[in-house]
Amino acid sequence: MSRLRKTAARSTGPSGIAGRLRRRAVLPAELAASVPADGRVLGAVPLADGDSRWAVATARFLTVLGPDGVEVRRGWHEVEHGRWDADSATFTLSWTDDSKPLLLKVPAQIDQGERSVPVDTAPFARALRQGVESALVHTVSGQLPSGRRVTVSVRRDADGRLYTTSNLTAGVAGGAAPGEQEALEELFRRARDGVGLPTG
Q: For the chain: N or C, fewer Cβ within 10 A?
């Protein structure tokens, strides 16, 4: 099931809401201006010391910004799994296609203005989790004749359209033996039927 595993946010320094707001690292205005229009920014974290790169979460998209503008922009429906590793301070996102996982390493603090401020990962982690979960509509799991476990999901893309996909890579799905292919097609049929999509 596509979801962001629960994360433990870093301490934001002084106790109290006012202290957190004063000291939290903030997406620089010049980079915020490059975020594609998609409502307000729900969470953002720096990816390198010095404000040079940030990952930004909005309602429908994950965007990675760098000195030259947008480096990555992908919809939440494209995320298969999300994971936060507190030991390495890294978000790892795997995709529903064959793309390499995206690693987002977050520094503990950055220099902004004349002082060093801590980074609060909680808003970004929460936006990631909500984005991925909102794009996942329905899932069906089963076992192919070979013993391979497969999950077929119905997802909602950034334009609100529903579509089906599986956790198999395109090469594996396309090269399945006849018996395997029939079992896979049955899983797709069950997934579509579960949300009222055409099954023919």
A: C
Q: Which two tokens stand for residue 124?
A: 């970004």
Long-range (24+ apart) CB contacts under 8 A made by 107-112 are: 107/46, 107/47, 107/48, 107/49, 108/10, 109/25, 110/25, 110/46, 110/49, 110/50, 110/51, 111/49, 111/50, 111/51, 112/25, 112/26, 112/28, 112/51
Residue whose token pair is 């909680």: 122
Long-range contacts of residues 35-43, Cβ cutoff 8 Å, at least 24 apart: 35/63, 35/65, 36/61, 36/63, 36/70, 36/73, 42/123, 42/124, 42/126, 42/127, 42/130, 42/131, 43/122, 43/123, 43/124, 43/125, 43/126, 43/127, 43/128
Within a 10 A sphere around the Cβ of 135, how many other Cβ atoms? 20
CA atoms within 13 A on the CB side of 47: 22
- Mean pLDDT confidence for 119-125: 96
With vertex at residue 198, the alpha carbon angle to CA 195 and CA 199, rounded to the nearest 5 degrees, is 95
Compute the half-sphere exposure of residue 71: CA atoms within 13 Å on the CB side of its CA. 14
| Residue that wins the pLDDT comparison between 102 and 20 | 102
pLDDT tens digits, one per residue of 53-112:
999 999 999 999 998 899 999 999 999 999 999 999 999 999 998 899 999 999 999 988
